[in-house]
Write a structure and sequence with these properties.
126 residues
């Protein structure tokens, strides 16, 4: 089953398979299936053509995949352009939502900065 150019995994339940689309989590997948009147427990390969079309119709009304990615990047660009605090944090590659940076934030800053301990060099043996 392909939706918006993304192949959904056949061996997973349709509720879980829909989460492989960017912008669709568990709760949104459940609301899509409820609106399309499809059982959550069905495997993706068991979905009939009519149910598949119903799912597609519901998804067309949502902003997901490319449109959502474009909107998110436009929002970040706007914050950078107006030099907002959050925009500056994005530019510098630092945590944006108030996390501490003295320790942690390795995923944001990279694992390059290693702690030094006391900073003293080991005395050479004679």
């Amino acid at each position: 089953m392909r939706i918006l150019g993304i192949t959904l995994p056949d061996e997973k339940r349709i509720e879980i398979a829909l989460t492989s689309l960017y912008g669709v989590g568990r709760s949104r997948a459940q609301s899509i299936l409820t609106e399309a009147k499809v059982d959550f427990a069905k495997l993706a390969k068991e979905v009939t053509a009519d149910e598949e079309n119903a799912i597609r119709r519901v998804i067309e009304g949502l902003k997901i995949e490319g449109d959502l990615k474009r909107e998110v990047s436009a929002n970040i660009k706007r914050l950078k352009d107006i030099k907002a605090y959050r925009g500056v944090r994005h530019q510098r590659g630092l945590p944006v939502h108030g996390q501490r940076t003295k320790t942690n934030s390795r995923t944001r800053r990279g694992n390059v900065r290693k702690t030094m301990g006391t900073g003293r060099k080991v005395a050479e043996k004679k």
